[in-house]
Amino acid sequence: LIQPACPYCGSLALLHNGHLVTNIRYLTANASLPVIIRLAKQRVKCRDCERWSMAQSELVNKYCSISNASKLKVLSALTEDRSMTSIARENNVSINPVQRVLGNCSHRFIDSYEYLPAHLAFDEFKGVDRQLHFICLDGDNHQVVQILRTRYKKTLLKYFGRFSPQARANVKTVTMDLNFYYQ
What pLDDT score does 108 carry? Predict the structure, then answer.
């Protein structure tokens, strides 16, 4: 990669100072034959503002050695019912990048305690370690509102107690069995 101009001041007066070679893990069709791209990033110093910089690529984020395409493949695999270990093995990465990808998209799942749907549907299901978990759906559009690790009354009261009284007052109907949604 070649740095065309200074990213700080836009100057074209650059002093080239070698390359940094990084090994980038890329998508592969066969997990037993990993694809590794050797990317040489040009290091430069701006003669005008005296700041150092390095060429960047859209193939990979700054300070990262796993390609963005591989991260998207990991993210799509996380939507399936599979272990993180199998996802990591398939994409030739360790479990830590898989956890980081999941953590980077977890901001979308932050609870808002200001709104509850008018119609709620509750049920329990067997989950991790064959324990029963609690699931709550919007009764109108079948979107998941929340999944709790336990189904005990104390946990449910604690979760629904976080909602404002106005949000709880909007709930009109409660359905106790979700089997009719999945038949």
Answer: 61
Contact, 14 vs 44, CB < 8 A?
yes
Q: What DSSP assignment string belongs to 86-154?
A: HHHHHTT--HHHHHHHHHHTGGGG---TT---SEEEEEEEE-GGG-EEEEEEETTT--EEEEES---HH
| Nearest by Cα to 170 from 138, 146, 143, 147 | 138
- Cα gap 155→102, rounded to integer Å: 25
Full residue range of the structural domain in which residue 56 is found: 1-65
CA angle at 117 for the pair 113 and 118, rounded to the nearest 5°: 130
- Do 29 and 81 belong to one domain? no
Backbone angles phi, psi at 75, to 5 degrees: -60, -40
| DSSP structure class, residue 160 | H
Half-sphere exposure of 109 (CA within 13 A, CB side): 10
Number of folded domains that form the chain: 3
Contact 101, 88 (CB under 8 A): no
pTM beyond 0.70: no
pLDDT at 136: 86
Q: What is the spatial distance between Cα 117 and Cα 137, in angstroms, rounded to a whole number?
A: 9
Helix (H, G, I), strand (E, B) or coil at 71: helix
